[in-house]
Amino acid sequence: MPERLAEPFGVDPRAERPRGRFSLLAVISVAVVATVVVVSFLSAQALPSAEMRVVLMTSWIVLGVVGLIVYRVRARVVADPRLAWASAGITVSVVAAMLHYISHPAVFPTRGPLGTGDQASSVLFVVFNGALFAAGIGALARSSRRSATVFAWVGSALALLIAVSALPMPELLGPGGTYSTLQLRTNLAVGLVGLLVAAAWFRTQSPAATALDSWFGVAMLFASASILVGSVPSQRFDAIWWASLCMRAATFGVLAIGGVLHLAHELRRAEEYSDAELSRREGQLERTSSVTSSLMGSAVRLSRATTPDEVGEVVVRALARLTGSTRGVVAVQRPDGGLKVVVAAGYDDVPLDVVERQLNARGAGIHEAALRDEPLYLAGRAELEAAFQYLQDIDPSRRGGRLAAIPLTAGSERTGVAFVGSDDESPWTPQDRSVVSAVAAQAGPALARALQYAHALDTAEVLQRALLPAELPSAPGVDVTARYLAGDSGASVGGDWYDAVALPDGRVVLLVGDVVGKGVRAATAMGVLRQSVRVLVDRDPSPSSVLCGLERVLAGEQDRSFATVCCLLVDPGAGTVVVARAGHLPPVVVGPDGTSSLLDAALSPPLGAGADRHPEESRTLAPGSVLVLYTDGVVEDRAGDIDERLGRLRSLVADSVLAGADLDAVADAAVASRPQGHPDDVAVMVVRVSPPPVAPVPPVAMSAPSMGLQHDGRSPVAPAGA
C-alpha cells in the first residue's frame, strides 16, 4: 500500500497533550492555614518553645527543597523560560533560607558552622524574599533561559558570601535584636515590589500557562506578605516575628504543595491521556486495518475479474464501501473516443442508456471530466452545477451532493473512467482521495486486462466456431444436433471438435474429439484432424480405418499433438453402430423406453501415442435409440468422481428422452450436466437413429392396344391452333 495510505483514515490529528491547570482551592486552603497561624500568634502573643522553633524553621526549609526539585525538573522537561526563571529564583531563595537557617540563633546559638553574624542573617532574610521577586522580573522581561541559569549561580554565590560575612553588611539590627529603621524600610520596599511583580505576573499569564506558573505567582504573594509583616516595628523573636516566619513557611509551602498537586494532576492526566491515546491508536489501527483489508480484498477480486462488467462491479463496491458513496458508474473507452457504461449503481430509476448518453454529451461537462488526466473532486450544489451544467438531465432530483471523476489508466494508456458520488455534500478528505487513488491504481490495469481478455475471447470464439462444421448433414433415419461451449478458464482456442459425414449408402460417420491443450497449437491440430476426416471417410468409413488414418496424420506433423477421438459408423437401415475409441469417453446410449447404458467397447490409446491399430466393435441399436457423444468437459470435475458425473449425464439424458423431448432439448440436458465453473470446453453431439422410411414401389403401367400411333415418350404435340 502506498506510504500516504499508512496515515490514519478519518482520524483527527494527534491532540495536544493536556496541561495541568491552576487550583484556586488549594491556594485558598494554604492561605487560610497561614492566616490562622499568623492571627493566632498575633492575638495570643504566644511564643513557641525551643523545639517548636526548630520544627517551624526546619519545615520551611524542607518545603523549599521539595518545591525546588519539582520546579527544576519541570523546567527542564517543558523548556519554558518562565519556569526556568521561577526555578532560578527558588534556587537562590532556598540557598539563602538554608544559610539563614544554619546561622539562626534559634537553631544554632553559636551562629552555626559558618559563623554568620546577626547582620548577615538579616540580609539573608531579605535575599530569601527578594530572589523570588527578581526571578519574576527576569521572567516578565522575557529573558532567556541561559540568563536564568546565570542568575541562579550568581545569586547562590552571593548568598554564600553574605553568610560567611565576606561582604560589608548594613546595620539592619539594633541593640537587643530590635529592627533598625533601615531594616523596616528595606522590608517595606521589597514587599511592595513583590506585590507589584506578583500582580504583573498574573496579569501577563497566558491562557496556556501551566499550573506551576500560577503557583509561583502565589508564592510571590506570600513572600510579599512575609516581608511586609516583618516591616512592622517589633522586637526580634516576638509574636510578630514568628508570624512572619509562618508566612515564610507558607511561601515555600505553596511551592511544595502546589508542585506535588501539579505532579499528581499531571500523572492522572497522563494516565487519562495514555488511555485516550491508546484507544485512539487502537481505533486508528482498526480503521487502517479495515481499509487495508478492503483494498487487499478488492485487489484479489480484481485479479479474478475476467470481464469489464466484473471489474466495474468490484470498483463501484470498493469505492462505496471505503468512501460512503451511494452512486457509481464505470465506463470504458470506446475506439471512437466515447464512453461505454459497463456498470451503473445507484441509478435504478434512470435507464442505463440515458446515463451513457449523458456521459457522451459533448459540452455537458461530464464527458470533459472523463477525459481529464487527474481526478476531479466536487462537493456541493454550486460546484456540481458549475462543472456539469446538464447534470440534472441524468437525475433532476439529485442536484447536490458530491461527485468524483477518476480516470482509470494502465501505464500511459487510458482504459476508462469511474464516477462515484453521494447526496452528502461534505468535502472529499485527503483520506478519501488517497483511497480513491488506490482503488483507481488497482482498477486501471485490471480493466485493461479484462478488455484484452474480452477481445481475445471474442476472437477465440469466432475462430473456434469457424473450425467447427457450419451445419450437420441429414440422412434418412439419422437426426443429428450438436452443441459447443467455450471454457471458463480463458480466451484461448480449445481443442474440442465434432463432425458428421453422410455416406451415399445412407450410413453416417460421427466423430467427437478433444486435442490436448489450448491455443494455436491445439486449434491447428484440430483443423488438421477435421480436414483429414473427409478424405479418410471417402477411402474407408470404418471407424478403425478412420482412427488409424488420423494416427498417421498426427505422426506426420512437426509438432506432435495428442488427441482423444470417438468415431461411430451408424447404419440406420441395419440398426447397427460400429464404434472405435482412441482414449475417449464412451458414448451414452438411451433406448426408446428410457433405459441408458455406456457404449464402452473398442477402447485404444489416444491418437499421437503411436498405436499400430485401433479396434472397432459393432452393436445393435433399438429403433428410436439416442446416442450422446461428448468431450471430457461434460463430466470431468476435479472435486467429484467420474462415475458419479457419468451417472448424472445418463440420468439427465434418459429423463429427457423418456419425456419425449426433441434432440435440441436432449443436447441442452447433456450440457446442463457440466460442472459449474469448469474451465474446460464442451462439445456434445446427439443422434437419434430410426429405421429409414421404405421408398414406395411405382405402379406397373398396363399395356393398351396399339392404334398405329408412334410416340417417343415425350408429350404429344397438340394440333395446330388447339
Characterize the structure shown.
The protein is an alpha+beta fold. The protein has helices spanning 24-44, 50-78, 81-102, 118-140, 145-163, 181-203, 211-229, 239-304, 308-323, 352-359, 366-370, 381-387, 430-467, 520-539, 543-555, 642-658, 663-672; strands at 327-333, 339-345, 376-379, 402-410, 413-422, 478-485, 496-502, 508-515, 563-571, 576-582, 588-590, 596-598, 603-604, 617-620, 625-630, 682-689. The model is unreliable at 1-22, 390-397 and 701-722 (pLDDT under 50). The chain is built from 17 helices and 16 strands. Helix content is 49%, strand content 14%. The strands form three sheets. Strands 7, 8, 9, 10, 13 and 14 form a six-stranded mixed beta sheet that branches. Strands 2-1-5-4-3 form a five-stranded antiparallel beta sheet, with helices on both faces. The protein has a five-stranded antiparallel beta sheet with strand order 6-16-15-11-12, covered by helices on one side.
Q: How widely separated are the two ends?
A: 101 Å
Number of helices: 17
What class do helices, strands and sheet pairing give? alpha+beta
Q: Tally the beta strands.
A: 16
The residue-averaged pLDDT reads 75
The shape, in one word, is rod-shaped
- Main sheet characteristics: 6 strands, mixed
Low-confidence regions:
1-22, 390-397, 701-722
Helix content: 40-55%
Proportion of residues in extended strands: 5-15%
User: What is the gyration radius calculated from CA atoms?
Assistant: 53 Å
